[in-house]
Amino acid sequence: MAKSDGNGLRVVGRAQRKVDATPKVTGETLFADDLSFPQMVYCKTLRSPHAHARIIRIDTSRAEKEAGVLGVLTGTDLPIPFGILPVSQDEHALALDTVRFIGDPVAAVAAVSEEIAGEAIHLIDVEYEQLREITSVEDALANPEPRIHDYGDSGNLHKLISLEFGTVADGFDAAHLVREDLFFYEGSTHLPIEQHAAVAMYSADHRLTLWSSTQTPHYVHIALEKVLEMPASRIRVIACPNGGGFGGKSDPFSHEIVVSKLAMMTGRPVKATLTREEVFYCHRGRHPTHMWVRTGVTKDGHITAMHFRTALDGGGYGSYGVASTYYTGALQTVTYQVDRYKFEGARAFTNKPPCGPKRGHGTPQPRFALEVQMDKIAEQLKLDPADMRLKHLVPADSLTANYLRVGSMGLAECINKVVTGSNWKERFRRLPHGRGVGIACSSYISGAGLPIYWNNMPHSGVQLQCDRSGGVTVFCGSTDIGQGSDSVLAYIVAEVLGVDPFEIRVVTADTDLTPVDLGSYSSRVTLMSGNAALQAAERARELIAPEVAKQLDVPTSRLVFAESRVFDGENPETGTTFAEAVQAAEAAVGTIGTVGSYTPPASAGRYRGSGVGPSPAYSYSAAVVEVHVEPDSGIVRVPKVWIAHDIGQCINPTTVMGQVEGSVYMGLGEALMEEMAYRANRRVVHKCPSMLEYKSPTTLEMCEVETYLVTDPDPNGPFGAKEVGQGPLLPIMPAVANAVYDAVGVRVDEVPITPEKVLTALKRKANGKEGGGRYGPTHFPEIPWPDPTRVPPPWEGGDGKAIRPSDEDAKAAAVAQPERQH
Amino acid sequence: MAKNRKGPLTKAHISFELNGEHTEVAFAPHKTLLEVLREDLRLTGTKHGCELGECGTCALLVDGRPVLSCLVLGLACAGRSVRTVEGMASAAGLHPLQEAFAEMGAAQCGYCTPGFLLTAEALLNGNAEPSRDEIKDALAGNLCRCTGYIKIYEAVELAAARMRGEDARPAEKSLYGEV
C-alpha cells in the first residue's frame, strides 16, 4: 500500500499496475474470440460486392442443403432497423432490399465449421440491380438521386446544421485581420488489433447471452431487444475485454445481432469472428471532412468572430454521424475566446463503409483547421504562435459563446510546459532548412452531457458489496477497452475504503450483473463511473464508520480508513482491521452493500443542437512537434514530440502517460500516413482493406515523446480527474503541419501529410506557381445552408435559448448590450 | 472439422515440444500453427490480428526463433520446439518481461502483448543489453495501437537489466511524466 501523498491521497495519484495487468501479460485474459463452448458453431457473412444496388432476389437453397450448414439468414429474417442514434435507425442486420457499400452484410450462415460456413455463403445466389453509386460529398450534392436513404435533410444530404452565436458579420467588421482558409481531413480507421468477435448462446429456457468485443454493451442490449423483439430482461450482454476499441466498437453491429438470431434458430452457441478485411468494412471511423474557416482577429490575435463550415463524407449509414457533425462545430470555442461564432455543418451519405466515432470524435478535423489557421494568423500578425494563444485563453469557470461551461482550464500551464521543454523560443523559425517545430493546442470533453437516447436516468451506476472476509466487490457496467477503466474503479474504491486495490474484485460490463454505464466512449468513464464508484464507496464508509466508532469509542470524524484498517487518526494503534469493521457493521445493520450513480450537470445551452459539446469538464493539451523534412523526397520524419496534458488529477499517472503516448502515436499516424481511401473511379472499392496496405506507424516511425502531466483538479471530476484517452491526440496533426511549414516553408492544409503532397507544395513554391507553397483544397462544396438558429452569446444578454424570428427586435436590443465581460 | 466431409475425416497427427512438454495433437492438415494452438489445443494466449502475416500479433517462438504462427502450418512443427505466452510464467512467478510489461503499463488492451513478449524474449536471448534502436528493429514487425510503443521499449529495457542481474527500477519520468 502506497504511503499518503501530500494531498492525503494514498492510492489515487500513485503509479501502479493495472488490476488486470497480470492476466494480460500471461495471456489469460479472455477476449471474445478466445471463448468456445461445447457444440459451438460458426457464422460467416456474405457481403455486398456492389457499392450501391437493389437486391432483386436471394436464393439460399443451395447453401441450406450443404452438409454441415445449420442455419441461413437473410434480411427478411431480421426486418427491424436499428442504429446507435434514435434519429438514424437506418441499419438492418442483413440488407433488406438495398446494399449501400462494398462489404454491406447481405446474408449469413451458421455451420459446424468456419470453413463450411465460409464456403456456404458463396452458395447463396443474389441478384442485384446496380444503382449509381455516390462517391463523395460533391457527388452527393450533385446527385440527390438515387437516394441512399429515404430519410435525411434532402436528397443524399443526411444532416444540415446552421447555428449562429452573435452576429458574426459584426465581429468581422470589428476585426483587424480576416482570414479565410480551406482544409481537408482524410478519413482514417481505428485499426484495433483485435478483430471484432461475438458469441451468442440461447438456452432452453429462452434466455439469450451475447459475449462481444463491444465498447457499449448497454446499447447492444437495446438493439438486440428491438431487433429480436425480446424482452431485454431475457437478454444478457457481456462485453469482453476489448483488444483495442478507439471508437470502432461503439455501434451495435450486424454480426452481434446475426449470431444471436442464429443461436435462437439452431439452439447452438454461435460465434462470428470478423476477418481483418471485414473490420475495415465495419469501419465507423474518422469522417473525411472538408472545411472552410473564416476568422477575424484583432491586432493581438483576439478572435472577434469565427465562421466555420464543415462537410462530412458519412458513408452508407447514419451511425453516430449526426453527433459527429455537431462535434465538428462544438469545441472550437473552448480553447481561445471567440466573441461571435457561426457553425454550418453538413453530412452526406455516400456508398462507402459508414463513418462514426474515432478517438476525438468529430473534433480532430476542425482542431486541425483551427490550429493551422492560428499559426497562419500569428505569422501574419508577426506574433509568436505560442504567445498569441496564451494571451487569449478561455478563462476558467466561464461560459463560451455556444454555452459550453468551462470549469478548470490548465491550458496556459500546458503551453508553458511544452514551450520551455522544447526550447521553443530558441528554435521556432530559427532551425536550418529542413528542420522545424510547430505548436498546437486542443481540448476535449470528459464525457458527454447528454445520453445517446433521451432519458433522465444516471449515466453510470455502481453497486458495492463489502463482505465479512473484508472483501470488496465493485459492480459497474463500464467496459475496459485497454484504457484501464476496471483499474480506475478499484483505485477509487480502494482510496475511500483504505484497502488494497488489488484485493478488490471488479465485475464489469455484464448487463445481468452490473448497473448500467453507458459505455466506453466520449472519454466519459473515469469521470462518470469514477464518480459513481466514489459515491458508492463513501456510502459504504458511512455505513461502516459508526460501528467502528462505537467499538473504539472515538468520534467518526477521527476515523481513518487506510492500509486495510480502520483506526483513530490521533492514535493509529487504536483500530480494527477492515474485515472486522465490516463484520461489526454487518452485525449492526445487516449486509453491507451500497450504490452510487452519476448524472452530469444540466447544460447551459437550450437551443436545438446544444446537446453536443457540453461536458462536466474539459481536458486541455498542448504539443510541440519537431520535424525533419527531406526537401528532395518530401518525406517527413518526426523525431520528437513534447506534449502537456491537463488531466485535472491523475488517478494513476502511469496509465495516464500510456494514454498520452498512445494518443501521440495515433495522431502521428493520422498526420503522416493513415487514410481510409477508395478507388472512386472503380466503383468505390476500398483501396487497401489490409494492415499491410493501410499504413500505420511501426516502432520505426514512432517518435520520442516527452510528456508533462498538468494537474489542476476539476470540481466535477472524481478527486478532480478529467479525461485523457482522446484529448492528447488532437494537437498532433496541426502541430506536425505547422512544423512542416517551419521546416520548409510550405503549407500542407490537409492530412495525411504524405511525401507527394509536401513535394508538390515544394515544387509549386519553387516554380512560383499559383497557390505557391501550398498543398490543399481549393474550394468548399456548394451547400444549401438553411437559415441559422440564432442564439445570442451570454455576453449579449443570451439565456442559452434560440431566438425566434419574432424575437428579432429583442435580438437587436441584445446586440446593443455592452461587450463580453469576464 | 475437416474440409473433406463426404469421405472419412483425415486428421494429421504430430508430436512436438510445446512449452517444454512433449505434446501430441491431431488436426486437419491444412491448419496453421495458430489454429492448431487455439482450436485444437485450446491455448488461446496466442492472438491474431490479420491471419495474413501483417501485424505480428500471433508471433511465438519455434526452436527459439520468432515466427508468425498464422503463416506456419501445424504440420511443419512436427518434432520442433514451440514456445507460447503460456510457457513464460511459472509457479515461481512471471517472466521478467511479463513483470516489466505489467509494471510499466506496456500492456494496455493486452491483445498484442503475447506477440511482443515472445519477440522481445528472442531478442534478449541473443542480446542481453540491446540498445533502444535494436529493440525498435526487433519489434518493428509487431503492431500495437494502444501504447505508442514507448512503454514497451521501457519494459524491455527494464526486463533486460533485471535479467542481467541488475537491481533496476523504472525511471520516475516514465511513470509520472516530466517535471
- The strand line-up of the biggest sheet of chain B is 2-1-5-3-4
Shape of chain B, please?
Answer: elongated
- CATH topology-level name of the largest domain in chain A: Aldehyde Oxidoreductase, domain 4
> What's the CATH C level of the largest domain in chain A?
Alpha Beta
Strand content of chain B: 5-15%
Helix % of chain B is: 25-40%
Structural class of chain A: alpha+beta
Extended strand count of chain A: 34
- Largest interface between protein chains, with number of residues from each side: A-B, 71 and 64 residues
Q: Any idea what the CATH superfamily of the largest domain in chain B is called?
A: Beta-grasp domain
Under the CATH scheme, the architecture of the largest domain in chain A is: 2-Layer Sandwich
Integer count of domains of chain A? 3
Low-confidence segments of chain B, ≥5 residues, pLDDT <50?
none
As a whole number of angstroms, the C-alpha radius of gyration of chain A is 27 Å
Q: Helical region count of chain A? A: 20
Outline the structure in words.
The complex is a heterodimer of chains A (822) and B (179). In chain A, the strands form 9 sheets. Chain A has a 7-stranded mixed sheet. In chain A, strands 32-8-13-14-15-7-34 form a 7-stranded mixed sheet. In chain A, 27% of the residues lie in helices and 24% in strands. Chain A has 822 residues and is an alpha+beta fold. Chain A contains 20 helices and 34 strands. Chain B contains 6 helices and 5 strands; from the N terminus they run ββαβββααααα. Helices cover 32% and strands 14% of the residues of chain B. In chain B, strand 1 and strand 2 (21-27) form a beta hairpin. By secondary structure, chain B is an alpha+beta fold. The interface between A and B is large, with 71 and 64 residues.
In brief:
Chain A is of the alpha+beta class.
Write the layout of secondary structure elements.
The complex is a heterodimer of chains A (about 800) and B (about 180).
Chain A: H1 21-26, E1 41-47, E2 53-59, H2 61-65, E3 69-74, E4 98-99, E5 105-111, H3 114-120, E6 125-130, H4 137-142, E7 157-165, H5 168-173, E8 177-185, E9 197-202, E10 208-212, H6 217-228, E11 235-239, H7 254-266, E12 270-273, H8 276-282, E13 289-297, E14 303-313, H9 321-330, E15 341-348, H10 364-380, H11 385-391, E16 398-399, E17 405-406, H12 411-421, H13 424-427, E18 435-445, E19 460-466, E20 472-476, H14 485-497, E21 505-508, H15 525-552, E22 559-562, E23 565-568, E24 571-577, H16 578-589, E25 592-598, E26 618-629, E27 636-648, H17 653-672, E28 678-679, E29 685-686, E30 704-711, H18 732-744, E31 747-748, E32 750-751, H19 755-767, E33 774-775, E34 789-790, H20 808-815
Parallel strand pairs in A: 1-12, 7-34, 8-32, 10-11, 14-15, 20-21, 27-30, 31-33
Antiparallel strand pairs in A: 1-5, 2-4, 2-6, 3-5, 7-15, 8-13, 9-10, 9-12, 13-14, 16-17, 18-26, 19-20, 19-25, 22-23, 23-24, 26-27, 28-29
Helix pairs in contact in A: 6-7, 10-18, 14-15, 15-16, 17-18
Chain B: E1 12-18, E2 21-27, H1 33-40, E3 59-62, E4 65-68, E5 81-83, H2 96-104, H3 113-126, H4 132-138, H5 150-163, H6 172-176
